[in-house]
Amino acid sequence: MIVSIRGLTKRFPVRRSWRQIAASPFAAPKTTVVENVSFEVAAGEIFGLLGQNGAGKTTLFKMLSTLILPDGGEATIDGLDVATEADAVRQVLAPVIANERSLYWRLSARENIRLYAALQGLRGDAARTEESRVLGITGLGDTGEKMVGEFSSGMRQRLLIARALLGRPRVLLLDEPTRSLDPISARDFRRFLRDVVVREEGCTVLLATHDADEVWELCDRVGVLERGRLLAVDDTNVMRHRAGSDRFIVWIRAGDAGATVARASSEGIALVRRGVAVEKGWDEYECHIAGGVDCAARVLATLSSGHERIARFERVTPSLADLIERVVSRPEEGRQIA
């Protein structure tokens, strides 16, 4: 495993008022932000880290990127300890924070890359070769002389990735990378991340996100954090099912709905009307089908066995809110991989 985390814990001092300090000057209360977190990530994997605001995702990323020290537990990146071998860790891991102001907007893309290459000790031909390589990888080769202040949000995000790839890292930490992108740019960025960064460059990606499309399209596995504790880690498809992918939508011709609902009820299938469908003359119903695709096929056969007309039968894609709420309310269903 290229990333290994065992019992990682971080506490911060509680901010106190002057009155509280005067009353108890030697007290040092602390709040736990990350508590006993353990999981592993394989090389070449895209691992999604989900959680509500304040769940501890950013603090966990800061510990992995050696920006803050853990108070307990240990974490290794490619076999290197983040606490005792920080310099070496920074050679194989690169954080990418969605903060466009970390770039120099009055410099061109090429000048930005040249500056950060120099900070990493690259000079002369080596720096120019690496500069052309990362701009080409990220599709910015033709815009290298354009000022970053004139870039779109998507182009700036690609430039952040280009900067991170300068040191040829094996692991990338991405904190909400498509937060400022429009839907089309976000889709293009996800495709670039999967096809270029992971498949061609061979990077392993840890991704903190609130975007459902990023999770379902990109992540091989998903972990859910809640108040600093890791409640569940599992394959994305398993998580999707746990979040409520047993929900199906059925479109039934308005005049046929009564007979279809009655026949379904006689077979133990509960159809609940959601309202009028997008298409005029059709009603939309929802049903819960446990047991996977085989059971769904049997239900569809039952619904379509009469003369009534059915136009649509499809599984509902759960939202991240559904997933987080389900895992938080039923943590015993989660499977933590240590």
Percent in strands: 25-35%
Number of helical segments? 12
Name given to the CATH architecture of the largest domain: 3-Layer(aba) Sandwich
SS class: alpha/beta
Distance between the termini: 11 Å
Topology (elements, then pairings):
Blueprint: E1 3-13, H1 18-23, E2 30-41, E3 46-50, H2 57-64, E4 72-77, E5 80-81, H3 86-92, E6 93-97, H4 109-119, H5 124-137, H6 153-164, E7 171-175, H7 183-200, E8 204-208, H8 212-218, E9 221-226, E10 229-235, H9 236-242, E11 247-253, H10 257-266, E12 272-276, E13 282-288, H11 293-303, E14 310-315, H12 320-329
Parallel strand pairs: 3-8, 3-9, 6-7, 7-8
Antiparallel strand pairs: 1-2, 1-4, 4-5, 9-10, 11-13, 11-14, 12-13
Helix pairs in contact: 4-5
General description of the model:
The protein is α/β, with parallel strands linked by helices and about 350 residues long. It folds into two domains: about 5-240, P-loop containing nucleotide triphosphate hydrolases (Rossmann fold, 3-Layer(aba) Sandwich); about 245-315, Alpha-Beta Plaits, CATH 3.30.70. It contains twelve helices and 14 strands. Strand 7 (about 170-175), helix 7 (about 185-200) and strand 8 form a beta-alpha-beta unit. It is globular, with a radius of gyration of 25 Å.
